[in-house]
Amino acid sequence: MAELVIAGGRRLEGEHTVQGAKNSALPVLAATVAARGRCVIRRCPNLSDINATLDILRHLGCGVTRAGDVVSVDAGALSGCLVPEGLMREMRSSIVFLGPLLSALGCAELGSPGGCEIGLRPIDLHLEAMRALGVRIENEGGRLRCQTAPGGLRGARFALSFPSVGATENMMIAAATAKGVTVLTNAAREPEIVDLANFLIACGAKIHGAGEGVIVIEGVERLHGAEHTVIPDRITAATFLCAVVMCGGELLLHGVAPGHMDAMLSVLEQAGARVRRIGKNGLQLRMSGRPRYLPMIRTMPYPGFPTDAQALFMAVSAIADGTSLITETIFENRFRHVGQLQKMGADIRAQGNVAIVNGVPQLQGAAVNACDLRAGAALVIAGLAAQGETRVREIWHIDRGCERFEEDLRALGAKIERTEPERLF
Ligand code: EPZ
Q1: Of 281, 156, 177, whose CA–CA distance to 221 is shortest?
Q2: For a surface tag, which of 137, 234, 313, 398 has the fewest beta carbons within 10 Å of its beta carbon?
């Protein structure tokens, strides 16, 4: 199995262009199923999760081509509403095919989605939202058979009990072609929701309020094809910023959306980084010396501090001067990196969803496991700052979300190699 081998302790300096957001590209690609006509999606990162999504699209009968980071999808020949078990288990976001299939064909047959093991991750909110639109759902031994009411999807008022990102996405896509108006309350407000809404609007949907707590969707007869450029990935952008904060140095980020990163940038500034926004899409970070302890972090739905950055900031706090307190409120099992950071000499006490991190002056290289995507990225940046050699195993998790990770880190001066050059996708 491929590993990343890192010789730590080098200062980082240079420029990096941020990839397209995985968590935007995935629902946008799934939503192409609901459009009649060709969709062209730009800035699609080259990731195993994206490739799994393209496999599902092909399985459903869509015409799919890819040239670099441009993917084109034509759902004109959509031939089935069944996503096979194996493809469902490839990733969590396979559940976001539910809304598009119900919109396009009035039926969907899906198994349980896979994805990072960071919690139970039920899909009850997705199903409640679809039921509100008049969908009948039968569970046959774990497989879900979903069918719209005669006459198709019907607009409805629906309040989510938690602002789930995926359930908001399914609801927006399905309601876009439902009969009548849908009012979704307590909707997720993540930038990826706004990006999906903008894509759907480009396809002819009438959606108001995406990015706010209440989204109003006036159903239209049909969606047409459209072109769309995916927003920058705020979490991989944060990964590179945290790496420089840990290693010291200077980074110029291009193609970034600083406005999506306020909660994270504020913490980095309080840790001692000098951050400068350059125009709409640039960001410069300078760091010298050891980071200061982090202000209290509590993961929250957007615009709060993102759970996807919690492991990265824990890595930073592990070498910070002083004690940091990190609380994870979104997923119940998202501290699996704690044990791996401890192997590197971190002083972390975790109980339930709270971690107390007493920063140590220096981490030591060790053999560690990338237990999920963001934890894996956090261990890599910890390795870059550590003394000696770090070997990160199970890096297929990292390939799910970080494009050209080690190549781009090397360009900043990091010493990092993959033991097997070939990726599995
Ligand atoms: C999205 O997952 C992201 N994934 C996750 O990123 C991210 O961590 C998460 O949103 C929160 O920001 C994609 O966009 C592909 P949720 P999603 O539904 O949609 C509970 C990464 O590393 N819940 O907002 O699955 C759930 O268990 C990944 O890129 C229910 O109880 O997240 C969790 O505790 C990891 N029932 C909370 O809500 C449901 O039906 C938030 O989940 C749905 C969710």
Answers
A1: 177
A2: 137
